[in-house]
């Protein structure tokens, strides 16, 4: 084979390249179609505040899903996130009730999630146990801790919390977002940068592509794997704080099943469950898809809110099949 | 060569539980040479490389790089010192780009952020040095296997490599891709890099290697300039001449091949092949015929068996049984057509160590009947007793856990299991390896009896004497091709088969 032959092969490769963007583009197209349906059916839907509200109502989910994106990119899964969100909110509410200063509460609340994530990451890596079962254990543990703290909801009256919760950042026409949305955007920006421009991020993709190869290429597999669960824990903690801003309380049974919403958002956003391919931007689109479905069903008014779940279920099927088809054609 | 060797390994020994993998082996590598490390599977090649790259620690012996004694703790440390390895399997990430695969782990950065532009520029420069025109932004998975292999080499030589170890890099490449690889190897050679080349392909050794080191059974056989070692001599050194030790079978006059092959073939393979496994081949097996499959380990013998048994799916050619086409796509289909396959790795693929001799023997028959129709215990006892006697399995206790038996007797249990299903074609892959001489002779006697009784047997063995003693016809494998099929008449002897293996011609 001559060098030109190899070049031709490579050029065929170049033509195929956009394929890894296909899932994200499909999600984007789906979002546009759903938004288009909304706008054509309901006049108020074209109001830009509808989009802002989708972010306000799902900011915490977005942050959690970003953390989940890291984990899924390595080919793992983190089922503990919903419980960690609830636990973080519970701990914050409980500590504030006991009169601790807001800054200290924030610090403690933000440490719990990453610590649990770090421990789970170590167990997963060093004992070579399936992430599914380790994080399932983490999920039960964190949920149990919520109930141990209190069996009932704890209201938050701390001025810092209420201040942040009520702050509206908007334009003169009355459109606004909450501080939570800005925090969520900041998390998205940092995560996108980390995945694209840092060694940690690239190692995440490499491990998702082929963990054995990553090890043989001398990449810090142990550190990276533990790191992604720690990051997921941190994102859950931030998500928990945002949720406590949103509800101004900590409740032991809040965010039940949120891990599944997060996984759904990540997958609908085009990240491969087997790891190695996907973008944070896709996850943002995935969360928006969920948000727009909720909004559409709210606007309709006659449909039961469980229809959200039915539609999400159908979409998940469609996207998993899409991933499979792309994967098959690649071979 | 008057220069100093870049790498010396002296009196390296390594023992694993029960196996002396390396026994006082010496090895030298000079700058700017391509050095082939030859030996059959299990000769110690991989162990030697793993000791060199720090995967294993030698029990004794010294590794020196540039005269300095070194002791690497792992492949990464070896790489940092300039000893890089490219494995048979491409150990890269298919989802990342070509450029990233070359540089991941040591990307150029500005203030901690990866400088993608610089990374791609360096990748292009490096590939240009290897005269490769590859789009560095393409995902590696979209490139051909050959290109992936080149990218792996590019990654390996980027950090000032002095020694490049290529561990069977050509086994999944086609001939034009191999040529491409050799061009790059010669170019690196000219740059002064010492290349250690491990391969099963004899032709390739004679095409690129300057010197050859031969290992056999963990011992150094010798180090030779390629020009001074004819292929026949190399094969002899790899196999060894331990061929006459076996007790002779009572030499009954073998039936004439023409007589055996008079009827319709039981099984006929036409241009059967699978890319990367074995080149298309055609062969026939008749009822009552023993076909021997000779060739070095790794020459494609087991691959032929796996294709015939449906364990691998052929991508070329077809199989005919009793004159009508037969789709044998899975082992289940093969078993349904009365084909039995005694695999090489009896411990891994064949036996369930915890179960008793009786249970192991009944396994295949029970599977064939389906688990809902258990075989009556009395019938089991009868059958098992019959085969324990027929094969003289020792100890003759049907309830003994099979792991307590010796290797030879375990092999007989595997045989009994398949014989009980009364196959019409029995494929035996290395049935006598690693068992004592008595058991060997018994298994050989059994093969003769079975074929006299009308069973067709495909007999795979590395021992030529054994193949010649039993077969009516010998198919010779080399470099994953079936080079020829020889009628086993008076003119055929071990030397002629060995010459065929060495030369690849149908002598």
Automatic annotation (TrEMBL), chain A:
<keyword id="KW-0472">Membrane</keyword>
<feature type="transmembrane region" description="Helical">
    <location>
        <begin position="280"/>
        <end position="299"/>
    </location>
</feature>
<keyword id="KW-1133">Transmembrane helix</keyword>
<feature type="transmembrane region" description="Helical">
    <location>
        <begin position="305"/>
        <end position="326"/>
    </location>
</feature>
<feature type="transmembrane region" description="Helical">
    <location>
        <begin position="50"/>
        <end position="73"/>
    </location>
</feature>
<keyword id="KW-1003">Cell membrane</keyword>
<protein>
    <submittedName>
        <fullName>Sugar ABC transporter permease</fullName>
    </submittedName>
</protein>
<dbReference type="Pfam" id="PF02653">
    <property type="entry name" value="BPD_transp_2"/>
</dbReference>
<feature type="transmembrane region" description="Helical">
    <location>
        <begin position="226"/>
        <end position="247"/>
    </location>
</feature>
<feature type="transmembrane region" description="Helical">
    <location>
        <begin position="176"/>
        <end position="196"/>
    </location>
</feature>
<feature type="transmembrane region" description="Helical">
    <location>
        <begin position="103"/>
        <end position="127"/>
    </location>
</feature>
<dbReference type="GO" id="GO:0005886">
    <property type="term" value="C:plasma membrane"/>
</dbReference>
<feature type="transmembrane region" description="Helical">
    <location>
        <begin position="20"/>
        <end position="38"/>
    </location>
</feature>
<dbReference type="InterPro" id="IPR001851">
    <property type="entry name" value="ABC_transp_permease"/>
</dbReference>
<dbReference type="GO" id="GO:0022857">
    <property type="term" value="F:transmembrane transporter activity"/>
</dbReference>
<keyword id="KW-0812">Transmembrane</keyword>
Automatic annotation (TrEMBL), chain B:
<keyword id="KW-0813">Transport</keyword>
<keyword id="KW-0067">ATP-binding</keyword>
<keyword id="KW-1003">Cell membrane</keyword>
<dbReference type="InterPro" id="IPR017871">
    <property type="entry name" value="ABC_transporter-like_CS"/>
</dbReference>
<feature type="domain" description="ABC transporter">
    <location>
        <begin position="7"/>
        <end position="242"/>
    </location>
</feature>
<dbReference type="GO" id="GO:0016887">
    <property type="term" value="F:ATP hydrolysis activity"/>
</dbReference>
<dbReference type="GO" id="GO:0005886">
    <property type="term" value="C:plasma membrane"/>
</dbReference>
<dbReference type="InterPro" id="IPR003439">
    <property type="entry name" value="ABC_transporter-like_ATP-bd"/>
</dbReference>
<feature type="domain" description="ABC transporter">
    <location>
        <begin position="262"/>
        <end position="504"/>
    </location>
</feature>
<keyword id="KW-0677">Repeat</keyword>
<protein>
    <submittedName>
        <fullName>Sugar ABC transporter ATP-binding protein</fullName>
    </submittedName>
</protein>
<dbReference type="InterPro" id="IPR003593">
    <property type="entry name" value="AAA+_ATPase"/>
</dbReference>
<keyword id="KW-0472">Membrane</keyword>
<dbReference type="GO" id="GO:0005524">
    <property type="term" value="F:ATP binding"/>
</dbReference>
<keyword id="KW-0547">Nucleotide-binding</keyword>
<dbReference type="Pfam" id="PF00005">
    <property type="entry name" value="ABC_tran"/>
</dbReference>
<keyword id="KW-1278">Translocase</keyword>
<dbReference type="InterPro" id="IPR050107">
    <property type="entry name" value="ABC_carbohydrate_import_ATPase"/>
</dbReference>
<dbReference type="InterPro" id="IPR027417">
    <property type="entry name" value="P-loop_NTPase"/>
</dbReference>
